[in-house]
Amino acid sequence: MPLVDPVTMSSSAIVKGAVAQSTSTTKSTPGSQATESSTTTAGSSSSLATLRPVQIKQTPAAQTVRHALPAALTALYLLRFDALVTNPVPVMLNALPVVAAFQMTYALLCLPAAGEPASKSNRKPRPGEKKKGGDIGSSTIITALLASVLTSIVTPFLYFAMVLFGAPFLTHGSHTFLCAAHLALLTLFPLFYVHGVDSAAWAAVGGFRAPLDETFGGLVGGIVGAWLGAVPIPLDWDREWQRWPVTILCGAYGGYLLGRVLGGTLFWGKKF
Amino acid sequence: MSFRRNGNLSSTLLLIAANVLIPVAIVIFATGFFPYKPLLPGLAQYEPLDGYGEPPEAPFDKLVFMVVDALRSDFVYTTNSGFKFTQSLIRHGAAIPFTAHATSPTVTMPRLKAITTGSVPSFLDVVLNIDEGDESSSLASQDTWLAQMKAKDTGKLVMYGDDTWLKLFPGTFDRADGTTSFFVADFTEVDHNVTRNIPGELRNDDWNTMILHYLGLDHIGHKGGPRSPHMVPKQREMDGIVSQIYKAIETQDHLKSTLFVLCGDHGMNDAGNHGASSPGETSPALLFISPKLKGLQKNQDSPLPDAEDFQFYSTVEQSDLAPTLAALLGFPIPKNNLGVLIADFLSIWPKKADQAYLLHENARQIQTVISAASGTKTFDGALPAESCASPTSDYEQLACEWQGPSNNLMSARVGDDMDSQWALPVVTWLRKAQELMSGMASNYDMSRLILGQITALLAVIFSLSAAIKTVSPTRSLTPLLVISIAYSIMMFASSYVEEEQHFWYLATSTWFGYLTLRGFKRANTTFPAHLLLTAFPVLASLRLLRAWNQTGQKHAGTPDIVKLFIEPHPHFLWLLVGLTYFWTHRQLVYSFHGRIPVPINYPVMTGLVLAAFTFKAAFTLEDAPELVVEFVKSSLLDFTRGASLIARARAVFVGLGLVAMAAMGFILWEMRGAGGNRKRSRRKKGPAEAITTLQHLYTILALTQSRTANIPVFLIFNLLYWFLSSEIDAPDGTGLSTVELGISSLLLQYASFFAMGGSNAISSVDLSNAYNGVSNFNVVLVGILTYVGNWAGPVWWAFGTVVLLGEIWRRDQRQKRLGSGNNGKRGSDEKEEEAEAKQMLEGGQISPFKTYVAVTTLFTAFSVAAVMAACTILRTHLFVWTVFSPKYLYCVAWSLVQHLVINVGLSGLLFWLGSF
């Protein structure tokens, strides 16, 4: 594609809108359009350049849950912290369904499901639209179930990524794997729920070009937090909590919650 | 435009200034941090002490001094020790046992200095311990108990064992047979060479001092740790020698006044290593043995139960040996001694006046040392009472406290009736003086520390502004700044210094994760799954490197790839080693392809690689025979049987030198031809390929200087190198930039150092390859071989970086030619156009090499400044001599050798050669 070249090379010179325009003209060829399941159903704005930040549903339930769940997750983490330090594997295992339920509730109530019009609040409902925002229909439940299947598929890969970044390989297998499961559930499940397997959206996420919102902010925060969680391990303080993978999990939760809250509020819609 | 040209020039000047300031800062700081201790010259003489008579008569006239290297206290004293005979001597009072505290650094040479001079060796002796040929570390000109025994002229001095003694005391011994400890796999021969001399010497009566230094026990420790199955049999063997000597003293008339000292120079930690200051390393055993000592009635319990802190019986300082030997053998205390006469022996002299004499002599001698160090004559007269009310210095405080002990000595001398504890205040005072003088904290030259610090900060500022001027866009420096600043902060925490490898491993994995996945930025619509497929082998390689050798302090000795997979499977090891040599051979032949005819190229390169490989096999057979498989032994070593290791190593080095000269010849020849049209087709690639030849030749040198188990690491390096090389020509003009290559190189240089077993501890310096091909000690050669042996990976990456820089340079040249062809299309960016115009005016762009130097200089300046700041601020920290000072020495090696010599000097030369 000859047109890609000038776009990448002139990013600093052309204003963003121009880039977006040129990209969308590139993309509006019918062939490429059909292969993608895009985030929005609107034709002209389907390409990556207009990947919109996810907006939390405006229903009272969604707004309550949005604020209550981070607090609940924090509380859960703090409550179980001592147990986690002494006995990481069973505690992480038992917490997994609870966290999964939290995330599931969050996704169903607050997030637009993949394939569903993303930002209804910004635009008038189109005539052909079936559902109102805030409803939990069967299709959203199926999306959530699919997202959880995808999350569990991706967990082994996340485990291997953690090993590649230095997690113990021959020992602590269940520790690392459960930690990866928690990380996937926190950071990837909401993204699977809102983006499905839309490769353009995932390419944008992977290239750090996606706009910040609760889901993407949570991903960035969770991964950076888990990464920073490795920092205190070598210190010679000889504390129990320095054991693998307490700090990693701690960093992942702290980073995820911070990223999710900041991404949903202060930095919403901003890009890297 | 002239302004811009000045900009380029000024950044070059700033860069040069920063690189000049770095070594200046290091030297200034080092002179303040490792102060030169004033040494009193000459040999001590008995000087008449006021009011005392002649020096008291010594109970002994001969000395057998038996050092068992790394003889930790529990090896002799506990229940599961092999020293059964020695323990019976303790029970009968014929052996007086102590735990002798050895100060860090717990390596042989500084310990021998402490034992013989009674002083506390400066930290610089560690460096000199490695650099064993240095004249200044020789004790021939210093006052030691050996010099005193020689001055007594009552007999010859003989020495059998570790040749460190011969290096420390050149020309002192009348008969000597030195053994070297090149191969720690040698448990028996090295000790047999000592033992076989003993029976003959015990019959001789012409010596007054016999020194024996056994290395086998230390070798067992290094190889298998303190719980090695070889340990107790070796202890029994040593016990047998104790018994042999003791029985000779008992039975033979000419030996009846012989003092027999058995001691360790240092201990060992649980991994069997030493150098630092863990209780195991600092607690060697010390025993004074003679039938005459039974008179002291010191019969003590033996064996004792295990003790966690390795303290058995009473603990003395290692330096206390010197004044104690002086008293027992009757010679003046060596001039620079800081040791205290061990009070347990005082009762040998029945007269109190004699005891007072010995203590007073000890005190007076230490007072002389204090006066020399403080530069005042504190002890000459009585101090005015008012200055004692509020003493201004530790020295003055000490002088004031001398009053009480001095009165005690006076009373003892005139024979006053005193309680049995009269000597205690004197000994306490001596201990206090010893502590003050041994603690080096007061010796820092603060003004120099601060001056060095300021110079280093200037270097940081210069290198920072040079980097900002050189690198565009400036934001591409962000990762480098993050690395530099994070590293600088880390230098202040002792555990991060000890476990520095984690920083580099995490940073390298993250950076390469970024490099492999930044293609996501190019992918607009489709999820670039192929990038994950590239990322996997790259990150997996880094993960393998990280696990190859477990390094650092906390988990030293825990399982790693070498211990789990390599050592138990030597066949697998030799498969990988063979593959590495084969791969290097292939690349070497390929890089000469087209230059020399195949019938010459092939046999020459094969011969060179085979010589290197057989040397490695023969070396491993000596160093770690358990790693050599039968196949390698029979097929490769047999047809070169008879060649000595030195000859083999020399063959490799000479071969490398000749081929390198040939490669340089090609470069120069092609440089000359580059001007003409005749060589047009080769002009672009010729010298550049010859540079890769030098790179492959260095690989062979690096393999020769690396431990066998580390050789497969170079295969991993090749894979990462191949990835970096492929990234240079990535599509869409998003290829690796020079800054990105510089950062990658920096990270890989450090990560490879730690992956190959390096750490910030002095004990991790690998000397096993330091003497390859060297028969007579040569400081320069051994220094170079040691450096390459320990920094093999970092230097390899420096070579690799130069070749890649050349590739970037040619890529940019190509793009420039392309760009000037259709400037209209590319000139969308105004800035870029301007920059291009500027480059054209100057007749060239900013050389990638300059950018690379800017990158490495920036990091080096940061690290030097941070390590200095940490050493200054934490100079009174408990770990200053065990963590921060070694880190400073490593930092010096990294910045002076790796940065200035390798990354700037050698790389600059190679880049220049390759750029024609």
UniProtKB/TrEMBL annotation, chain B:
Alphabetic keyword roster: Endoplasmic reticulum, Glycoprotein, GPI-anchor biosynthesis, Membrane, Transferase, Transmembrane, Transmembrane helix
Q: Which residue ranges does the record assign to the GPI ethanolamine phosphate transferase 2 C-terminal domain?
A: 441-915
One Gene Ontology CC term in the entry = endoplasmic reticulum membrane
Superkingdom, according to UniProt?
Answer: Eukaryota
The record's comment on protein family reads: Belongs to the PIGG/PIGN/PIGO family. PIGG subfamily.
Q: What is this protein called?
A: GPI ethanolamine phosphate transferase 2
Classify the protein's membrane topology as the record does. Multi-pass membrane protein
Q: Where in the cell is it found?
A: Endoplasmic reticulum membrane
Recorded GO molecular functions are: CP2 mannose-ethanolamine phosphotransferase activity
Which organism is the protein's source?
Neurospora crassa (strain ATCC 24698 / 74-OR23-1A / CBS 708.71 / DSM 1257 / FGSC 987)
Record carries keyword S-adenosyl-L-methionine: no
Q: Give a short account of what the protein does.
A: Ethanolamine phosphate transferase involved in glycosylphosphatidylinositol-anchor biosynthesis. Transfers ethanolamine phosphate to the GPI second mannose.
What SUPFAM superfamilies does the entry give? Answer: Alkaline phosphatase-like
Q: Which Pfam families match?
A: Phosphodiest, PIGO_PIGG
Membrane-spanning intervals of the chain: 12-36, 449-468, 480-497, 527-548, 596-619, 645-669, 708-724, 736-758, 770-788, 852-875, 887-913
Q: In which pathway does it act?
A: Glycolipid biosynthesis; glycosylphosphatidylinositol-anchor biosynthesis
Under the heading InterPro entries, the entry gives: Alkaline_phosphatase_core_sf (IPR017850), Phosphodiest/P_Trfase (IPR002591), PIG-G_N (IPR037674), PIGG/GPI7 (IPR039527), PIGG/GPI7_C (IPR045687)
Kindly report the protein's main subcellular placement as a broad class: endoplasmic reticulum
Tell me a GO biological process for this protein: GPI anchor biosynthetic process
- Signal peptide range equals none
